Amino acid sequence: MEKEQTKKPYLKLFLSTLALSAFTFGGGFVIASLMKKKFVDELHWIDEEDMLNLIAIAQASPGAIAVNASILVGYRIAGFPGALVSILGTILPPLVILSVISLFYEAFKSNEYVAAALQGMQAGVAAIICDVVLSLGSNVLKTKDVLAILIMPVAFCAVFFWKVNVVYVILGSAALGICRGLLRRKEGKA
Prior knowledge:
The protein has helices spanning 2-22, 28-42, 48-60, 65-103, 105-109, 112-143, 146-160, 166-189. It has a domain at 2-110. The longest helix is centred in the middle third of the chain and has 39 residues, at 65-103. It is mainly alpha-helical. The protein contains eight helices and no strands.
């Protein structure tokens, strides 16, 4: 029975990341929101604050957000083996889909139905990203943390209106967080 319980989280983790990756269109931000719904809201394996932190780290790390988030979530849930299982579940569907598409590229390239389906998916992706922004943003507002609340509109304006590269916004936000943490640590020791 003990072996069965040990295998269950890995299998469930693999199947969850496999399903999320296989049926999610729109990239890392979309899959990150669905990971939150799966692992925080449904399975209760991670708390919401940890998930927010993992997504922030995934965004700041080089590489695909979906893959980075998968590695971090898997590691948080089941250590190094969990990271391996979740990464396999995450990369397997795109690998298979891209392999099939590459075989039939000429047929897909000019197919008007495929083009229409992809355009229709863009609306769904926009809705999911809006849901993520509202969900995560409302959680930040609930903390009543003035700095965190201030960072949201400033970061949005920097990227949207002033065309600042997202990397600089992330690095600036990370620097603010580090400085704040160091100040709090120093105040705690004083």
